[in-house]
Design a protein that fits this description.
There is one protein chain. The chain has twelve helices and 25 strands. The chain is of the alpha+beta class and 450 residues long. α10 crosses α12. It is globular.
């Protein structure tokens, strides 16, 4: 069974009818206590409550789904993460297997209320909440509150109880990997509502075990098992069916992918609401195990820089590297390293439309995050035990030997490409991040250059 964090809610999430108004209350939790007296992140009206309700139900279905875990593991419910600030709400979560990532963005034009506190937390999506969301009708007004707002939004105090919920460690790891892939992605296709519905109607039935490729012939998008030029590879195509309930409400869909095609993201647009849906390369590969963030963890970042970021990049605001450099009187190269490190730790999310990072104030202690990457820990152990030998290093090329179990591995780093003679590299060819031997060499060089 996977590792989990156990945390408590002081109240249940609920939807309460008060006169003619529905009031949606989402309970919050954070183990990181900020100096604030605000009992609530946001409260106010939502301009598209029916659409938002459908998006949140779909997000909940994604969070409760799995494509490679046992029924026992699937029985463990998880709760989405919500980030509030900069006049936006972002709800996000992973499937149980961490191979599907989804995010609901409610944009400023879709909200009419008050942001009392910036922050990120986990929210309690109990079954009664899902049922209540399903009962919201078109054009019905609701008031949304995230946090324990004490005035008017939740009046039935007898329902406030303490509830323990498990949070998968792999979610925290996945947050770092997803934003790396998103920041490398480019928009490749845009489909209108009719094109999107035709595309989904043409999907093969059942569980799809082989790769399919998204192509456009003329003006018609289609999925094909045959690879062609400029096609987007989609592994585990059947996972896209989780989006089908939202298709009647979309304006259009944009499709994004990075050059290496290790993920593909579908972004649905519904007025002032966006729904992002990212798939890992295959159903058995979760984002948490891809290793895309490991290079960003080589250089250390002190707590003072994390504190500096907390001052200049509030929740959901774009992360301004130039502002941080000017205010802290440091070089742009240093801020670039800090950006890479913090993004790898999951503290920065990525907005595909704005083409920039946003700050995610995680509700978990940062010391937790740094202990979640065994390859990096094993690399540091190799250095501590003196098993890494730099044979030659220059600006263009580095050659090293690392002692293994009964064998010495040779590592070559040349022109941005890495090679190692170990079994891990032979199997994955760098597609799932660097092996521990490459990490050890790069970290030793970094330490020597300080």
């Amino acid at each position: 069974m996977e590792d989990t964090l156990i945390y408590n809610y002081s109240g249940l999430s609920s939807l309460v009818k008060k006169n003619a108004l529905e009031e949606l209350f989402l309970s919050k939790y954070s183990e990181v206590q900020k100096n604030t007296d605000a009992p609530c992140f946001f409260w106010g009206n939502v301009s598209q409550p029916f659409t938002l309700a459908r998006c949140l139900i779909t997000l909940s279905n994604i969070v409760k789904s799995s494509f490679n875990l046992s029924p026992f593991q699937m029985a463990l419910l998880k709760d989405p993460i919500v980030t509030v600030g900069n006049e936006k709400l972002r709800f996000e979560g992973f499937s149980h297997c961490a191979g599907v990532y989804a995010r609901v963005d409610v944009l400023p034009e879709g909200l009419d209320g008050e942001f009392l506190e910036n922050g990120t937390t986990n929210i309690d999506f109990n079954q009664s909440m899902i049922t209540a969301l399903g009962s919201i009708r078109p054009n019905e007004k609701i008031m949304l509150s995230v946090g324990e707002k004490e005035v008017g939004l939740y009046t039935e105090e007898e329902k406030i109880i303490e509830r323990k919920v498990p949070l998968p460690i792999k979610w925290i790891k996945g947050l770092g990997t997803v934003q790396v892939y998103l920041s490398e992605s480019e928009k490749l296709y845009t489909f209108n509502k009719i094109q999107a519905q035709q595309l989904f109607r043409g999907m093969p039935k059942g569980v799809v075990k082989s790769d399919y490729y998204l192509t456009v012939r003329g003006n018609k998008p289609t999925f094909s098992p045959v690879k062609s030029t400029d096609a987007i590879c989609v592994g585990g195509l059947h996972r896209l069916r989780l989006l089908e309930p939202l298709l009647p409400y979309i304006d259009c869909i944009n499709v994004f992918a990075p050059p290496h095609m290790q993920s593909v993201t579908w972004q649905l647009y519904m007025g002032n609401i966006r729904f992002s849906f990212s798939l890992s390369r295959e159903t058995w590969r979760g984002f948490s195990g891809e290793g895309a963030v490991l290079d960003g963890l080589i250089d250390e970042v002190s707590d003072e820089w994390i504190d500096a970021l907390d001052k200049y990049a509030y929740a959901n605001q774009s992360f301004n590297k130039t502002m941080l450099a000017v205010e802290e009187n440091i070089s742009l190269k240093k801020t670039e390293n800090i950006t890479t490190r913090l993004a790898a730790m999951g503290l920065l999310g990525y907005d595909l439309d704005d083409r920039e990072f946003f700050y995610r104030r995680l509700p978990f202690k940062l010391s937790r995050i740094m202990k979640l990457n065994p390859r990096m820990k094993n690399a540091e152990k190799l250095i501590d035990e003196g098993k890494v030998e730099i044979v030659h290093t220059s600006k263009e090329r580095t050659e090293a030997r690392v002692e293994g179990t009964g064998v010495h591995h040779t590592i070559i780093i040349e022109e941005g490409k890495e090679r190692c003679t170990c079994e891990w590299f032979s199997k994955y060819q760098g597609e799932r991040g660097p092996c521990k031997h490459v990490l050890a060499v790069k970290k030793l060089i970094s330490n020597n250059n300080k």
